[in-house]
């Protein structure tokens, strides 16, 4: 990614927006993985994400006007807008930036005009949170440039609200949070109910995590995501009529018989089953990582995958095929990560297995789906930061 701190992008910036005496500043936000705790971060659950070394980079310079002038290198598109800020169907990528400006202004900080160039190498739609990275780097760049007293945790909430209210995906807080507070070599455990979190360092010994990108992106992903969220909310409302003490679906610890009295639809019961069983798997993974019991961790990852596939119904034939094949090839653990409906699979395995797995799986996947697979080795890296140029 360091290659993106490029003379080329600085030159591009000045050729699009002109030269001024104001300095151009550069900010960078990472992608993220999530080890365990999937589809629980909008239900008060615990998640275990880490920032990884893919990135979105933003060059920003105040322009002493009230206009926001943006350029995306990926889309090779320049847009300019002023308040009132409204979604722009012709440049959907700019909505993430506009949404962040709106949320910062709601906190009482007037955001002056600026010139802004964005570039990045996070594969989009791959479950690695390229949109959260864009929201977080935008909020961070604005608050640093204009010296707004906004903490990293608040940057995360601003990003989530921009996505929920301006873009319209009802995502949880996990992605924006880890991208804001991540630290090299550590994952965090985040309680998404209280937003309390702590850093964890695990020594993986002879094991490693890596990613496999299915290269599948489903267009109904966002609407299906919002539907899952509303099914979980309606399940909780029904449970609360019998058991009013539960404030979050994640806390529900009722027997099958007790749940039967709540008259959940079959979808609501399956969603509840995933969420509450994920709570138990998360405990297993945290203790397994701490004690070095990677077999137990791996087995929990497989169980999470099949729970996401069968009960939460957010997988797809391609990622199911990858996980199933990995399981048959004797890999330690694997599961889809992120929102689902394609994207990446996270793998935990012995380091010396990698080359064998890569070769076999690429071939069988190509044969079955006529699609290439990408394998990514990664490093756990820092959260959003300024890069000094
Ligand atoms: C997406 C969302 C997150 C989270 C995951 C599933 O990445 O942005 O908030 O809900 O899906 O765990």
TrEMBL record:
Residues 11-61 form the Galactokinase N-terminal domain. It comes from the Bacteria. Pfam families: GalKase_gal_bdg (PF10509), GHMP_kinases_C (PF08544), GHMP_kinases_N (PF00288). One of its GO terms (cellular component) is cytosol. The keyword Nucleotide-binding applies. One of its GO terms (biological process) is galactose metabolic process. Residues 96-182 form the GHMP kinase N-terminal domain. Keywords: ATP-binding, Carbohydrate metabolism, Cytoplasm, Galactose metabolism, Kinase, Magnesium, Metal-binding, Nucleotide-binding, Transferase. Residues 287-365 form the GHMP kinase C-terminal domain. It is an enzyme of class 2 (transferase). One of its GO terms (molecular function) is metal ion binding. InterPro entries: Galactokinase, GalKase_N, GHMP_kinase_C_dom, GHMP_kinase_C_sf, GHMP_kinase_N_dom, GHMP_knse_ATP-bd_CS, Mevalonate/galactokinase, Ribosomal_Su5_D2-typ_SF. Its EC number is 2.7.1.6. Belongs to the GHMP kinase family. GalK subfamily. This is Galactokinase.
């Amino acid at each position: 990614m360091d290659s993106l701190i490029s003379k080329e992008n600085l030159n591009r910036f000045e050729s699009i927006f002109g030269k001024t005496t104001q300095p151009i500043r550069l900010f960078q936000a990472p992608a993220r993985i999530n080890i365990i705790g999937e589809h629980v971060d909008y239900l008060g659950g615990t998640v275990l994400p880490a920032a990884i070394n893919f990135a979105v980079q933003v060059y920003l310079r105040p322009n002493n006007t009230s206009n926001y002038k943006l350029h995306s290198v990926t889309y090779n598109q320049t847009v300019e807008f002023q308040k009132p800020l409204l979604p722009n169907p012709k440049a959907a990528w700019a909505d993430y930036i506009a949404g962040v400006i709106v949320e910062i202004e709601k906190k009482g900080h007037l955001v002056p005009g600026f010139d802004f160039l964005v570039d990045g190498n996070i594969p989009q739609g791959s479950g690695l949170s390229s949109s959260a990275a864009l929201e977080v780097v935008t909020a961070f760049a604005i608050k640093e440039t204009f010296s707004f007293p906004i903490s990293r945790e608040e940057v995360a909430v601003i990003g989530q609200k921009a996505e929920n209210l301006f873009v319209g995906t009802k995502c949880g807080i996990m992605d924006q949070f880890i991208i804001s507070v991540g630290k090299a070599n550590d994952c965090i455990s985040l309680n998404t109910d209280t937003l309390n979190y702590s850093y964890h360092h695990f020594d993986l010994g002879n094991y490693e995590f890596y990613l496999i990108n299915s290269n599948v992106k489903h267009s109904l992903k966002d609407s299906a995501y919002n539907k899952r969220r509303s099914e979980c909310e309606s399940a909780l409302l029904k449970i609360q009529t019998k058991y009013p003490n539960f404030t979050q679906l994640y806390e529900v610890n009722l027997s099958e018989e007790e749940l039967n009295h709540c008259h959940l639809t079959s979808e609501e019961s399956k969603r509840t089953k995933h969420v509450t069983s994920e709570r138990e798997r998360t405990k297993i993974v945290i203790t397994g990582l701490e004690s070095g019991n990677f077999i137990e961790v791996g087995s929990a990852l497989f169980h999470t995958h099949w729970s996401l596939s069968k009960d939460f119904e957010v997988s797809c034939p391609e990622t199911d095929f990858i996980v199933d094949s990995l399981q048959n090839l004797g890999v330690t653990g694997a599961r889809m990560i992120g929102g689902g409906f394609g994207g990446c699979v996270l793998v935990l395995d012995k380091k010396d297995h990698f080359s064998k797995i890569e070769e076999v799986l690429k071939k069988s996947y190509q044969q079955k789906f006529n699609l290439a697979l990408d394998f990514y080795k990664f490093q756990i890296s820092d959260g959003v930061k300024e890069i000094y140029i």
